[in-house]
Amino acid sequence: MRIAAFGFRSIPPSKGAAGADKFAIELFPRLVKRGHSVVAYNRRYPDVFVEVNEYKGVKVKTIKTTSSKGFDTLWHSFRCTFDIIFNNTADIVHIQNGGNSIWALPLRLFGKKVFISQDGVDWKRDKWPWYGKLYLKLSSFITAHIPNEVIFDNVIAKKLFEDRFKKNFKFIPFGSEVETGAGDTDILNKLNLEKGSYYLFVGRFIPDKGLHYLIPAFKNSTSNKKLVMIGGSPNPSPYEKQLFDMASDQIIFPGYVYGEDVNTLMLNAYCYIQPSDVEGLSPVVLTVMGLNVPLIVSDIEENEYAVLDTARKFKRGNINSLTQEINYCEAHYPEMLALAKKAQQRALSVFNWEKVADEHVEVFMNS
Question: Against a cut of 0.70, is the pTM above it?
Answer without folding.
Answer: yes
